[in-house]
Design brief:
The protein is mainly beta and 203 residues long. It has a single domain (22-45, 71-193), classed as Thrombin, subunit H. 12% of the residues lie in helices and 39% in strands. The protein is built from 5 helices and 10 strands. The strands form 2 sheets. Strands 5-4-1-2-3-7-6 form a 7-stranded antiparallel β-sheet. The protein has a 3-stranded antiparallel β-sheet with strand order 8-9-10, with no helix packed on it. The longest helix has 7 residues, at 24-30. It starts with a helix and ends in a 10-residue tail after the last strand.
């Protein structure tokens, strides 16, 4: 009986020469559609006076003065990755990368930067859709694939922006399918992999 094309692709290597693989052709095709995402927002809070424990000043001011809280602002930054799924600048990423952020910048593989607009978010599945404006340019994209065809043991490449150092590639295998995410017991379509995923790869 003839094997299907997908079964032939997954056959066990029969000789040592067949094990000498290179992912370079796949990376060349996929990497241009992978983006880096930088997001930030101003977080406002309060802090206690740094003079609270100064015994000299306490001689002149009562506890009410030192109990005052001072306004404080700090910048919160996040980074992640995304993938272009439409040539007019539609990007899919993780919701936690851009959630509650007030400024989002997308950096393409050629290092061009664009402001991004949030089109859609789904915190439960941790997905978000962004949009950049490339003008009349047709951007490279990656098409959606059928996740039902994924099998445990399939090879995986993770392309992203770990720690903000720029685009890198790691590899692994599919460790499990039909996983649930913590707090998302109603959905069992997450895919587990042992490919190295570091902060900045999210997306």
């Amino acid at each position: 009986m003839a094997q299907s094309a997908s079964a032939q692709d997954r056959r066990i290597p029969q000789a040592q020469d067949e094990i000498r693989l290179s992912f370079a052709p796949i990376v060349r095709q996929a990497a241009p559609a992978v983006t880096n995402i930088f997001a930030k927002r101003v977080v406002r809070g309060e802090m206690r006076s740094p003079l609270l424990n100064d015994p000299f000043l306490r001689r002149f001011f009562d506890d009410g003065f030192f109990g005052r809280r001072l306004p404080r602002e700090r910048m919160q930054n996040t980074l992640g990755s995304g993938v272009l799924v439409r040539s007019d600048g539609v990007i899919v990423t993780n919701n936690h990368v851009i959630e509650n952020m007030t400024e989002i910048r997308v950096v393409l593989s050629d290092r061009r930067e664009f402001d991004a607009e949030v089109i859609l978010t789904d915190p439960q599945t941790d997905l978000a859709v962004l949009k950049i404006d490339p003008g009349d340019e047709v951007l490279p994209v990656l098409p959606f694939a059928d996740s039902d065809s994924v099998e445990v043991g399939d090879l995986v490449l993770a392309i992203g922006n770990p720690f903000g150092v720029g685009q890198t590639v790691t590899s692994g295998i599919v460790s499990a399918t039909s996983r649930t995410q913590a707090g998302v017991s109603d959905y069992q379509f997450f895919i587990q992999t042992d490919a190295a995923i570091n902060p900045g790869n999210s997306g």
